[in-house]
């Protein structure tokens, strides 16, 4: 246990309770979706961890800790599956939970049963004794396995998210509102949080004989409560986005020795030069396929095979060239760099800067400066 801190307890309680309220709002948010349900579960479980710490310390101050041990809940084995299935739901349209998927939550049931046993009560209380009983090592093992579960599911979630972000580039040329990059932040934060928490506690236990606990224990859970509250707000404000079934566009062929389809390349280049569809920031694969009188899936394959790039990179390469051409014109000073970028089909400053530097190895400002020096 640690010394009670009214300020930190208040912050944890406010953020924790707010997170629980947000979890309820998310669960019943319309339209009610499976994704919202999993996000609500995730936020609630993390809020429960934070609130537990406050309650257990308050009960300790009133010498009622033995009572609290009978009702304490920590759903750490539900966090990983909730995060993973939330990621699956928002990256895959029409995702449905299958019967075998419920097995992912079976360890959560075992955890709930474990917290009702005397092994847990003796083990958790024994952590604060000079000589820990055998039950404490069982409790620590259960905790570490829970953390490993969270790490495993978090890594799996990141893989699903990265795959999705790669897939949308095969269909969209504007991905700012579809990339779900905001979700990377809580996943990485939670993975880092559990890793650092376990490392710090074990170092404190074996090296400093638990003398540093006062410095990191409550601040750690304060940060957790604040982050969970932020994720709850972010998740609640997230709008439902229409995502096409991206599975047909996963293929990507990179083979420079493969024979190019000159007829397709000629037709594609002519369309880009004459009609300039890339100037439309909302251009997607289906729209371009219609202009080329092709189906989206064959067009995706042809782009991959003939350009060794996906749809997103090909379209943005034309936008970059159009931008460079505008800077070489006599009218370049009539607009800012960002203004020219918008005229070329880019829809955000961050995307424009990232794409331009990726394709030219220099920033737009550096490119303009070189042009001015050369002229």
TrEMBL record:
Residues 269-370 form the HTH araC/xylS-type domain. Keywords: DNA-binding, Membrane, Transcription, Transcription regulation, Transmembrane, Transmembrane helix. It comes from the Bacteria. The keyword DNA damage does not apply. InterPro entries: Homeodomain-like_sf, HTH_AraC. The keyword Transcription applies. This is AraC family transcriptional regulator.
């Amino acid at each position: 246990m640690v010394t009670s801190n009214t300020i930190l307890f208040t912050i944890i309680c406010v953020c924790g309770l707010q997170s629980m309220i947000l979890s309820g709002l998310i669960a019943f948010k319309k339209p009610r979706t499976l994704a919202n349900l999993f996000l609500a579960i995730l936020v609630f479980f993390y809020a429960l961890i934070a609130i537990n710490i406050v309650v257990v310390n308050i009960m300790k101050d009133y010498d009622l800790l033995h009572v609290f041990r009978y009702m304490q809940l920590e759903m750490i084995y539900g966090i990983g599956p909730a995060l993973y299935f939330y990621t699956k739901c928002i990256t895959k349209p029409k995702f449905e939970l299958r019967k075998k998927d419920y097995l992912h939550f079976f360890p959560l049931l075992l955890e709930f049963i474990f917290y009702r046993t005397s092994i847990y009560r003796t083990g958790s209380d024994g952590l604060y004794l000079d000589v820990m009983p055998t039950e404490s090592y069982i409790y620590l093992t259960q905790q570490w396995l829970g953390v490993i579960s969270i790490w495993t599911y978090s890594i799996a979630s990141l893989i699903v998210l990265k795959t999705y972000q790669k897939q949308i580039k095969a269909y969209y040329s504007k991905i700012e509102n579809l990339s779900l990059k905001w979700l990377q932040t809580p996943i990485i934060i939670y993975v880092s949080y559990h890793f650092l928490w376990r490392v710090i506690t074990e170092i404190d236990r074996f090296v400093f004989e638990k003398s540093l606990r006062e410095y990191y224990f409550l601040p750690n859970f304060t940060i957790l409560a604040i982050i969970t509250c932020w994720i709850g707000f972010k998740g609640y404000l997230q709008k439902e986005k229409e995502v096409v079934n991206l599975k047909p566009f996963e293929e990507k062929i990179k083979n420079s020795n493969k024979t190019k389809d000159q007829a397709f390349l000629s037709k594609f280049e002519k369309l880009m030069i004459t009609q300039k569809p890339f100037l439309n920031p909302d251009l997607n694969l289906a729209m371009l396929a219609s202009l080329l009188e092709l189906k989206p899936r064959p067009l995706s394959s042809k782009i991959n095979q003939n350009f060794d790039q996906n749809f997103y990179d090909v379209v943005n390469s034309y936008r970059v060239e159009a931008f460079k051409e505008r800077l070489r014109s006599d009218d370049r000073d009539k607009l800012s760099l960002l203004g020219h970028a918008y005229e070329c089909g880019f829809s955000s400053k961050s995307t424009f800067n990232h794409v331009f530097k990726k394709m030219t190895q220099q920033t737009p400002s550096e490119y303009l400066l070189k042009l001015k020096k050369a002229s």
